[in-house]
Amino acid sequence: MKKPLLTFTFLSLWLTASAQQTAVDFFESGVGKSKSGDFTGALQAFSMAITMNPENSASYYNRGLAKANLKDHRGAILDYDRAIEINAKDAMAYLSRGVSKSKQDDYRGALLDFSRAIELNPDDPQAYFSRGASRNQLEQYRGALSDFSKSIELDPANVNAYYARGITKQSLDDYAGSLTDFTKVIEMTPKRAAAYASRGISKVQLSDFAGAVTDLNKAIELSPEDGESYYYRAFAKSKLDDYKAAMPDYDRAIKLHPTNYKAYYGRGFCRNKLGDQKGALQDFSQAIEMNNSTSEAKVVYSGRMTRAILDNLRNQVQEKNRISDLSPERAEAYFSRGVAKNKQGDQKGATADLNKAIELNPTYAEAYFSRGLIRSSQGDQRGAITDCNDAIKLNPRYSEAFYVRGLIRHSLGDENGGCLDLSKAGELGYTPAYKVISEYCN
Questions:
Q1: Where do the domains of the chain lie, and which CATH numbers do they carry?
Q2: Does residue 381 contact residue 352 with C-beta atoms inside 8 Å?
Q3: pTM greater than 0.70
Q4: 304: pLDDT confidence band, cut at 50, 70 and 90?
């Protein structure tokens, strides 16, 4: 009898020690882990702080930041929502929520958040920069130009704002104006290939073809795999009637970007000028056919998982099969036998045992989950979702059930719902969810 008493004593001491940690302790631990780059650890610490003090906006905000750093922007937005609900005057929460919305291509929603952040803190250069980026995506170029200029006024050292303003000027056909901004970027960061490439493109538009070749030479030296730079250098050389020199650039542009129909046209033009009429006809035909096919059948990434990806990710999940006291109904024995049968490939027998376990113990969350795994592997995704739903109702902290349900929902086309489930799984401690979020939710 002494051993159980001793065990109980240790348990009591552990619970007492845990209880002595306050919400502030967990919050500070989360901040420290965030600073060290341990965002999964930070997330768990902030979650504990929230459990102990659910009305502290800073805990939600910082947990949102941790999720954002794990590329879980949907989950981050939910935390920013709560932080703003508690403290509607937190400019940084609006700014961060806007950034996460941008990552989800919700540029209109992001723009509203950035505008609110600017209302609350009109001297934040990052808010103007971020709003300018959203306006660019929405083709509101005049507004974007104004925002980037304001960002530069508040922070003259912000090299990204100069570059973004130069790109915006190009969108407004102000190629001459863009040269100043790209030159400033080059002065501040001489190794930035994109600045040379963009300045070279502006020079092409201004008919300064020799100057364009010089800039594009430097861009290619710094970034040898940039197909667009090869294309524009080839185009500039063609304009200078140097068709022979343009040919290898068109070849390289096509190799790097085989769907660049403009490069086929340019190469065909050069071949025509160099007397290769057969090659020219082939390139012109390719440019015509490719232009039609790419405009009519543009592929847009939707975030949908294939069945093979779902199966692979789901099969990596470990079932929760731990020994426990055997009840008089022996539901635990049916469950364990079902798990064993499934491992031997007897899915039919496994399902029968899991059905019996659930019949004997309708609150057996693990049995629902294990049956859901089998149903999913058999292609019955709707049935699998129902089982995961039941498992989660019985155990709201069942991280694996959220994870698998998220995979299935995503595979069925519900990307938002699936990614929110994956976010919840990660929040509850199932860290493999963040790798999936990073690959399929952004």
A1: 35-288 (1.25.40.10), 307-320+327-440 (1.25.40.10)
A2: no
A3: yes
A4: low
